[in-house]
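Handout, tutorial session.
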Amino acid sequence: MVNIYKDTEALLTAVADLFVDAAREAIAARGQFNVALSGGSSPKQLYEKLASPAYNWKVDWSRAYFFFGDERYVPADDPESNALMVQHALFGPLNISPENIFAVNTTLAPQQAAQEYMQRILQHFKRQEIRFDLMLLGLGNDAHTASLFPGTTVLQEQAVDVKAVLLPDQKTYRLTLTAPLINLSHQIAFLVYGAAKAEAVRHVLEGERDTSRYPAQLIRPDQGKVDWFLDETAAALLPVKYKA
């Protein structure tokens, strides 16, 4: 489902409400809430909202377990680290126990870090099927999501896994959940706003299927639900049918 909001504040409120509902439902059904977070500037405002007095009492945070859909291969104290950003915006203000936070160990070599992260995920899910209750995703101007970038070999990956991805133009690695792992989630939410994202949104939702150029098209779960949360500027190039 595509949801379009007049401004960023309305969009963030809607996603925060979705987060709370998903957490409550998962805890009621399974005793815990397993969520994979997205990095970048867009979700930072969401995390700050969840940590605010308006929302911080709505979730039993002791039963929430936090993972990352992707991570930059940088030291834990690097300003570019997704985990560090979320620590400042969400984990710190809510006093989340370190035992509930599954960050990528970037002190290991990239491939080792990916393997180790997958092992920790498997252990948490007790080696049963890995189905995150909520997967938060963003969208890059180039239509990438998580660290599934155009033209990278990870786009052909069929395994439920975590992979290290080399970005030659940036001469750096990223760690990412594969599309098959993301697609196992009970619920997936794309949080996208800003005019710079409009072209990518149009290609992913309405363009020809070309996952090598538009990797976010890979996110098509067989059983789970996908919701797009867009502001009007990000949705500007979509057909009228989405805006009715």
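The second record follows below. Compare its token runs with those of the first.
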Amino acid sequence: MEFTLQQLKNYDGSDPSKPIYVAIKGRVFDVSTGKNFYGPGGAYAIFAGKDASRALAKMSKNEEDVVSSIDGLSEKELEVLADWEKKFEAKYPVVGRVV
């Protein structure tokens, strides 16, 4: 499936009848099995329904960092992002791409 960033917002966990999605580098993961973390009130709920690439790379929960842009990240931050991507790949199914 292909999602715009606007469409991805519909999968933020606010509607219990829909899955919860988080994108990393444009790949959309179904994180519904981690709803305690990504659902409303969860520690990582700020990432739900968004491309969280920059925030994950920077280990940040600041709203301004929860964007897809990885421009200007340090080598270390890109390594951190790659680690997150591997964790997501091992744990959650990929359901689409952000276009």
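Points raised in discussion: The first strand starts at residue 2 and ends at 3.
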